[in-house]
Design brief:
elongated; 5 helices; mainly alpha
Length: about 140
């Protein structure tokens, strides 16, 4: 059997070789990264970036179509939001008119109880003769 000392020596030798390899590789990567940071390379990269932005619509018309469609969808979404707001405002107005109409009918019921005629009720409150007659009939049913 191998002694512990021999095993430790082999282990140390393998680890030192592994660390040597890692250090050499890191140094190589540093040199490669430094070569990319030269002014010539960065100027070419920025020029290429500008060319990409100007040439993309020509080379890929689908991209410009998608951008145009996206803008169209955004505009339609804004219009839809505006229409939704207008509808909500109109519904609020309808609710207010409905509440006012309920108040008119309540007032008509009171006028019937006070003995006003159907013609007076319809003229004063702007109701149809049939509405005034119906309100009077309902009021009579409640009292009998």
């Amino acid at each position: 059997m191998l002694s512990i000392g021999v095993l430790l020596a082999l282990d140390m030798l393998l680890l030192s070789g592994f660390f040597f390899f890692l250090k050499k590789r890191a140094a190589h990567n540093d040199k490669a990264a430094a070569s990319w940071k030269t002014p010539e390379v960065t100027d070419n990269a920025s020029m290429n970036k500008k060319e990409v932005h100007t040439e993309t619509p020509r080379l890929y018309p689908e991209v410009s179509d998608l951008e145009r469609l996206e803008q169209s969808l955004l505009e339609k979404g804004k219009r839809l939001d505006d229409l939704t707001k207008r509808i909500e405002d109109r519904l609020k107005n309808i609710d207010l008119l409905y509440e006012e109409q309920l108040d008119v009918y309540s007032l008509a019921m009171r006028m019937v109880k006070n003995g006003d005629s159907q013609e007076d009720i319809s003229k004063k409150l702007g109701l149809l003769n049939g509405e005034a007659e119906l309100i009077e009939s309902i009021s009579n049913l409640r009292t009998s």
